[in-house]
Write a structure and sequence with these properties.
The protein is built from two helices and eleven strands. By secondary structure, it is mainly β. The protein starts with a strand and ends with a helix.
Length: 141
């Protein structure tokens, strides 16, 4: 495993800036809803790890329209979003062995809508535990 801190608001309200997540690097069984840590050379020259939520699985048709996420034509409820989506996306089919990853703070997240889907080999691991900043501060004191 590995500990990583959250540097931005792209995953709010689920993850706050400076929260710490523990990453399981061995679990590669990726499911919708997982929080995935990955690197991509499409952003930051591939030197920084990012965290986003798995929304689209390989072979699925994904679309955001009218503030709703559609997966294979069916509405998918997203109760973890900070705010409703303000822009439409897709439709697109997620390529084999790749995933569509989006931030929970959808309107302020630089994610697969901008840099595309992420191949499975670029996935570092899955977030398995979040330690809120307030808890980290208490530990330091």
């Amino acid at each position: 495993g590995q500990a990583m801190y959250i540097p931005s608001s792209s995953m709010e309200p689920t993850l706050q800036i400076y929260d710490v997540v523990l990453v399981n690097k061995l679990d590669k069984d990726i499911q919708r809803g997982d929080l995935i840590i990955f690197k991509t050379n499409k952003m930051y020259d591939g030197d920084k790890a990012l965290i986003k939520r798995v929304v689209g699985l390989p072979g699925e048709n994904i679309m955001i329209k009218g503030n709703q996420l559609f997966i294979n034509g069916e509405v998918y409820a997203e109760d973890y979003l900070k705010d409703p989506n303000i822009s439409d996306f897709g439709p697109m089919v997620v390529p084999e062995n790749e995933y569509l990853l989006l931030g929970d703070n959808r309107n302020l997240s630089y994610d697969s809508r901008y840099f595309g889907t992420i191949p499975s080999q670029q996935i570092i691991g899955k977030s398995i535990l979040t330690i809120p900043l307030s808890s980290v501060v208490q530990l330091i004191k």
